[in-house]
Write a structure and sequence with these properties.
mainly alpha, 7 helices, 0% strand, elongated
Length: 205
């Protein structure tokens, strides 16, 4: 048995002691090992006695001084830890209720702003979509009219065809712009709004 196994076993045997007394006893033996680091661990253990012997002596001395032992197993320690976490959860719940007048208006304002922004973007996208369709239709009509006009008045026909091609090009650019906005812009916007409300919800709880 080395010093680490010794201290670990001694700690388990002293779980009935209060934490303060247990840590003081462990610190004493740990210092003893450190002060005799030139001596083998097994030789030191033979000198100071086994963990069980020392644990019994420490508990006997503690009770003789008026202390009371208590059963504090590892399971109970885990239970205490769970109770502590539960108390923190209740604390956050109480704080969220007490701060309700603060975060509720903020949440409503954020929700209204998100809805207004969504409506505004929807209107803008609708206008862009209608404009794109109108330009595309007008460009195609100009191209067809220009080609027909080339047989009667070539100069005007070429000009009208050129204007139609420009209009079609602009409409194609708008189509690509709508594709980018619908394909990437709106999902990113919804994701941002969703993450914002998730962060607010985490802060509340």
């Amino acid at each position: 048995m080395d010093r680490y196994s010794y201290l670990n076993e001694l700690n388990l045997l002293l779980l009935e002691l209060p934490k303060k007394e247990r840590e003081a006893a462990l610190a004493y033996f740990e210092d003893y090992f450190k002060n005799h680091k030139n001596i083998e661990d097994e030789e030191i253990i033979q000198t100071i006695g086994s963990p069980l012997e020392n644990a019994n002596r420490i508990k006997q001395k503690f009770t003789s001084n008026g202390g009371e032992l208590h059963q504090e197993s590892a399971v109970q320690q885990n239970s205490d830890s769970n109770m502590e976490r539960s108390s923190y959860s209740w604390l956050w719940l109480v704080l969220s209720i007490l701060t309700f007048p603060i975060w509720l208006p903020i949440g409503i304002v954020l929700l209204v702003m998100s809805v207004v922004m969504l409506i505004f973007l929807s209107v803008v996208l609708l206008v862009i979509g209608i404009t794109t369709i109108a330009l595309l239709a007008g460009g195609i009509i100009c191209i067809v009219s220009g080609i027909i006009k080339c047989f009667t008045i070539p100069a005007i026909g070429i000009a009208v065809t050129g204007i139609g091609l420009v209009i079609v090009g602009i409409s194609i650019l708008l189509v690509n712009l709508c594709g980018v906005i619908f394909g990437k812009g709106l999902p990113a916007l919804f994701k941002g709004i969703s993450s914002l409300f998730k962060r607010k919800k985490k802060k509340k709880w």
